[in-house]
Amino acid sequence: MGEKSIAKFEVKFLQVLNETGKVDEKLMKGISSSLIKQMYENMILARAFDERALKLQRQGRIGTYASVHGQEACQIGSALAVSKDDLIFPAFRENSVFLVRGMPPERLFQYWGGDERGLDIPKDVNVFTPAITVGGHLPHAVGAGMAFKYLKQKRVSLVYFSDGATSEGDFHEAMNFAGTQNAPVVFLCQNNQWAISVPVKEQTASETLAQKAIAYGFEGIQVDGNDVFAVYKATTDALNKARAGKGPTFIELLTYRVGNHTTSDDASKYRGEKIVKEWIKKDPVLRLSNYMKKKKMLNSAYEKKVISNAERIVNEAVDKYEKIKPQNPEDMFKYVYAEMPNYLKEQLEMMKRDISERDNNIKDGKE
């Protein structure tokens, strides 16, 4: 009879390296000097790739592109924690994750250039194809986790998405299945504050996104997403827990999308420059490099070497990408279905006629 409290919850916040360069040494266990250098080198490569991709898009050499600027710690810190046999499900902004996992960068340029052959992902990379549909890949990640559990494999499924995806039905369905099935899944939400032009405060009435996990029966934690050490630790802990049969974890990584949503967007239409400048001060690459300088792990010679090496890798990747023979346009009809339906056959014949007509006009000097 009467009222009583039947449920309580809390959401913890994790930060290891703060904005001034101070660290909580108790939380640095497992983060060696060699790993820190690996983090730094991958973050520099990710930014070099990103900057070149933006230039290529503006020059018309690739198509619409989604920048990762400002979110490097989220992606590098988590991807370095994942085991080789684990399976990653990316959204459309995870180029850094692909690079860490060993994806040839020229294939990423090829993909963003509109050539689907760029997504011929090497088997040992163990990253699924990017999901352009917001949130649509989360159930796939949970399904993979359920399969690992059924097969008694010590593998974990890790899925990347952003705050906008938490407003999709796919997100809630995936979370519910993960909870009820105790699936070995890590949900990595990069809360970059914007779902294109919609701010987080207009997407949810929840104080945090992490607390949404509580409703589905598992842990949610909020992490400083610009702190690569905290991201690595939170992801490692979640992976270990999943591998031990203790179920999924939801990690909300607080970060900021410094650039436009994609190269088709103009963020100045819906947000002010003041907030962007404040977040730039929290830049994850700058934070890590400042820490490394204090610890005498980063000097000008090493810094120049890392930057030069990243630029070389990116330049070589662009050269390789632009030497790839263009895809046969007939492929877009041939590989949609196992057996081509009549309406696609008609469209294929129409395209062939158009190409033949164009070639004849060129030959006759009419074009």
What layout of secondary structure does this protein have?
Layout: E1 12-14, H1 33-58, H2 72-79, E2 87-89, H3 95-100, H4 105-112, H5 138-150, E3 157-162, H6 169-180, E4 185-191, E5 194-195, E6 198-199, E7 219-224, H7 228-243, E8 249-254, H8 273-280, H9 284-294, H10 300-322, H11 331-334, H12 342-363
Parallel strand pairs: 1-7, 2-3, 3-4, 4-8, 7-8
Antiparallel strand pairs: 5-6
Molecular structure report:
The radius of gyration is 23 Å and the shape is globular. The chain folds into 2 domains: 12-18 and 25-322, Thiamin diphosphate (ThDP)-binding fold, Pyr/PP domains (Rossmann fold, 3-Layer(aba) Sandwich), CATH 3.40.50.970; 331-363. It has helices at residues 33-58, 72-79, 95-100, 105-112, 138-150, 169-180, 228-243, 273-280, 284-294, 300-322, 331-334, 342-363, and strands at 12-14, 87-89, 157-162, 185-191, 194-195, 198-199, 219-224, 249-254. With 367 residues, it is of the alpha/beta class. The mean pLDDT is 95. The relative contact order is 0.15. The protein has 12 helices and 8 strands. The strands form 2 sheets. It has a 6-stranded parallel β-sheet, with helices on both faces.
